Amino acid sequence: MKKRIGIIGCGKIAQVRHIPEFSAHPQAEIAGYYNPTRSRAEQMAQTYGGRVYDSIDEMLADTSVDAVVISLANTAHAEVSIKALQSGKDVLCEKPMATTLEECEAMMDAARESGRLLLIAQNQRLTPVHRQAREMIASGAIGKVLTFRTTFGHAGPETWSVNPGKGTWFFSKEKAAMGVMADLGVHKIDLIDYLLDSRITDVGALLSTLDKTGPDGNPISVDDNALCILRMENGVVGTMTASWTYYGAEDNSTIIYGTEGILRIYDDPVHSLRLIGSDGSVRDFDVERIQTNDNQTFSGIAEAFVGALFSRDGGELSAEKVLPAMKAVFAAIRSSGEGRFIKI
Ligand SMILES: NC(=O)c1ccc[n+]([C@@H]2O[C@H](COP(=O)([O-])OP(=O)(O)OC[C@H]3O[C@@H](n4cnc5c(N)ncnc54)[C@H](O)[C@@H]3O)[C@@H](O)[C@H]2O)c1
To answer: Is 166 in the pocket of ligand 1 (CB under 6 A)?
Structure first.
């Protein structure tokens, strides 16, 4: 029988990713939609089928809904996830998981107590290139890993959001809680944990607001650039940069340096994965191009969530696997505020 999915939040990511992907999944159907602005939920119901709910409570009370996807602004993630889990729904919540460690832990407690699944949409774990890179690193393709640099930057969320402009919730500390460190940085912090299969133990970070201004012309209340120095439990050290001010082209690259070579991931415009041997030899693996804001390819998120609903195993996106990245994000924010390295 198909799993019936409720969509909570019909903003941009739900429109370009969750709704089309769940709607296309052979073992899922979209039961319905909730959005604070009802007309947006109505548009989705007209295009993809399913009903419109007037409130989150109404959707959660519907016993025909098996699971929900939460794609609201960051500050709503914890409260809505906990409510949904306590109502007996399995949950896929967008990143960043929540805005404090206490919220993350409360979400995981709610999942444990209710016996429901809690997955976080850290979809960079799912790209075929990242999966292949992880296997190559584990099989010793570049020898012992020593260092890395990973980055995620684009021109900012103000042209992306369904409510575009300088007044976007992404720029508001009240609604987003955190800036680019948690918006884009969490993807790469989580990715490096996944690629190296090791947790971050030490974080030194500098978060800045360099260029973005709000509707009043003043600098936004969250960071638009984040630079981190990271140490992993396996001894590897590296850097992570996240930016909303890479004007002109998106950068989603990761480079891993080992004793026997270098792995360049999404670093070349043509070749998605390049292995450079310590002798200078080059091998390209053209697995696929990375998704960008303007090029939304199939993310695999629906496949991962529906698969988990049947197997009852959260797999790579389970909250337990993502929690270390959230700890590192919170440590980076603290490090920048206190001007010192933070041990996790
Ligand atoms: N996994 C990814 O790669 C990825 C990509 C983009 C966005 N996201 C995440 O998805 C979530 C939604 O982002 P989006 O890109 O769709 O943004 P968006 O601005 O297009 O949509 C925002 C959604 O949140 C709702 N909203 C706005 N203000 C709110 C508030 N104060 N409280 C609760 N809800 C509010 C809106 O009604 C809308 O449903 C965010 O948490 C974002 O970080 C993840």
So the answer is: no
The range of the structural domain enclosing residue 14 comes to 3-122+304-312
- Find the helix or strand (DSSP H, E) in which 176 lies: helix 173-176
Contacts (Cβ under 8 Å, ≥6 apart) of 201: 231, 232, 233, 343, 344
Question: Does 100 lie in the same domain as 66?
Answer: yes
What is residue 50's DSSP assignment?
Answer: -
Whether residues 51 and 186 share a domain: the answer is: no
Residue 218, domain member (yes or no): yes
- 258 and 131 in a common domain: yes
Q: Has residue 319 been placed in a domain?
A: no
Task: Indicate if ligand 1 lies below 6 Å from the C-beta of 163.
Answer: yes
Q: Does one domain contain both 100 and 166?
A: no
pLDDT per residue over 229-271, tens digit each?
Answer: 999 999 999 999 999 999 999 999 999 999 999 999 999 988 9
Assess whether the C-beta atom of 121 lies below 6 angstroms from ligand 1.
Answer: yes
Give the span between the Cα atoms of 149 and 126, in whole angstroms.
20
pLDDT at 270: 85
Best residue for ligand 1 mutational test, from 8, 10, 13, 295 (most atoms within 8 Å of Cβ): 13
291, pLDDT greater than 80: no
Cβ–ligand 1 distance for 11 under 6 Å, the answer: yes
